Amino acid sequence: MGKTQKYLAEALGTFALVGIGSFAILSSSGTGRLDVVAIALGFGLALLVGLYAFGEVSGGHYNPAVSLGMFLDRRIEMNDMIAYWISQVVGAIAASVVVLIAFNDDAVAATTTHAADNWAAIVVETVMTALFVAVILQSTKSERVRGTALLAIPLTLLAIHVAIVPISGSSVNPARSLAPAIVGTDFGDLWIYLIFPFVGAALGFLAHKVVSEGDMTLGASRADA
Known about the structure:
The chain is an all-alpha fold. The protein has helices at residues 3-28, 36-58, 64-72, 78-102, 105-110, 118-139, 149-168, 174-183, 190-213.
C-alpha cells in the first residue's frame, strides 16, 4: 500500500470522525440542551464509519494520540507518525470548514472542546486517552480479540464520550480539538487538548506493555499500522 494512500486515508477518516461528530454536537444542542448520548453516538459511529471506509489502508488512527501510541509500540516509523499527524489535522480542519460552510463561525465555535474545570479536564483527558490507546494497542494485536477491534474501538470512544462530555467536552484527540478552534477562532482551553491526550497515549502504551508483556521494554516488533 503506497504511503500517499495511507496519508489520504488518515485525512479522510479524520474528516469523517470530526465532521459527523461535529454535526452530532450541533444537532443535539439545537433544542437548547446538550444531549450527551447523542454526541457520544455521533463520535462512536463516526469512528466506525471511518474504520470501515479507510481503516484497512492506513490502520485507522484518525487521532495524533493514537499515532503516538503506535509509534511508541514500534508499529510505525517517526516520519510516518508526523505525516499521519499532518494528514489528521488537515482532515479535521476540512471537516470544520464544512461546518462553517453549512452554518457559520458560531456553529464551528460550538463544536470546540471546553473544560468545565481545568484540573478535572486534565485528569479525564489523560486517563481516558490512556484507556483508549491501551484498547487500540491490544485489540489490534491480540489474535483473540482482533476480529472484534472494529467494534471494540468505536464502542470505547462512545463510552468515553458518555463519561466525560460534561467534564472536558471529550476530546482524547488533539486534531479533533485543534480544527474547530482554528476555523471557529475559539482557542479557550485548547492547550489542555494539545498536551494531555499525548500524555495519556504514553501512559496507555506503558500500561499495555506492562500488562501484555510483563515489562516496559520498548521493543515490540514493527508492523504496518
